[in-house]
Amino acid sequence: MLTVSSPDTEDLWRAKVLYDSAYHPDTGEKMFVLGRMSFQVPGNMIVTGGMMAFYKSPAGVVFWQWLNQSFNAVVNHTNRSGDATFTNKELVTSYVLATTGAVVTALGLNHALRNAPPLIGRWVPLMAIAVSNFINIPMMRLQELQNGTPVFDDKNNRLGNSTVAARSGILQVIVSRIFMPVPSMGLTPILMDQLDKRGILRKYPWINLPVNVITVGICLTFATPLACAFFKQKAQIAVSKLEPELRESIEKKFAGKPPEYVYYNKGL
Q1: pTM for this entry
Q2: Between β-strands 234-238 and 158-162, what pairing exists: parallel, antiparallel or unpaired?
């Protein structure tokens, strides 16, 4: 008797994990590799390490903040919610506003805290990133704020677009992305400050960048998945909280008996 062997369950789950990490959940398109959340640790450890190492120089601040916000813009666009398309003009406008706002914030904080203790100065990049997340993420996901993100019932039937869900999802992403660098950018300055006080950085100045990068990388390895897990990617929102027009449309579709919740991809 001919038997057909079934695929191993672990192999199926492994394939699903690989697929989910590489393809957008709404569009089904293969995501740009540098924008995938799986690239966050190697990408961010280099960029963040550079920001931490060269925080004193205005030219260094501009370059590394620009590089960081450019990287973030790619990540934010790649992991946006919904299937909205951007024109080249919209993409360029969002990118310029996002990166400019973030760089200006970093320079402003550096200037305001120029006479602060050295340890506070080392925390300026973290403060700048926290503030700039409120600029970069909304700007790179502006289409969602303007036109809404798709919402679905529990059977994955699309019910319409909601700007209320978009705002809720983007706020959740901002909270996650603010926490993501906190362990690395909060603890690394303490370590570097101690090395500086003990004269080790003056004796071996070449270790400044590699120590920053390695320490940041170790912290991000744990902080990145933890921050992403703060909120479910498939978020839910009560129908009663949706905008009136969409709520009425849903009620009509369900003959006056709508579901209590609808679901949407909040993005990462």
Answers
A1: 0.82
A2: unpaired
Give the H/E segment covering residue 158: strand 158-162
**Pair 146, 132: CB distance under 8 Å:** no
Angle between helical axes of 182-197 and 40-53 (0-180°, round to 10): 40
Rounded to whole angstroms, the Cα distance separating 185 from 140 reads 24
Which position has the token pair 């919740």? 261
What percentage of residues in the chain have a pLDDT greater than 90?
Answer: 11
Residue 25 CB contacts under 8 Å (≥ 6 apart), including other chains: 233, 265
Per DSSP, helices labelled H in 113-258 are: 118-122, 124-140, 142-147, 163-179, 182-197, 200-203, 208-228, 244-253
Look up residue 5 and give its two tokens: 């062997």
**Residues 107, 115: Cα–Cα separation, whole Å:** 14
DSSP string, 64-114: HHHHHHHHHHHHHHHT-SS-----HHHHHHHHHHHHHHHHHHHHHHHHHTT
Determine the Cα–Cα distance for residues 65 and 156; give it in Å rounded to an integer: 40
Alpha-carbon span 253 to 132, nearest angstrom: 41
Q: Give the SS3 label for residue 115.
A: coil
Cα–Cα distance, 262 to 243 (Å, whole number): 13
Q: How confident is the model at residue 170, as a pLDDT?
A: 92
End-to-end CA distance of the chain: 49
pLDDT tens per residue, range 21-40: 778 777 778 888 888 888 88
Considering only CA atoms, which of 266, 182, 258 is closest in space to residue 229? Answer: 266
Query: 10 Å Cβ neighbour count for 163?
Result: 16
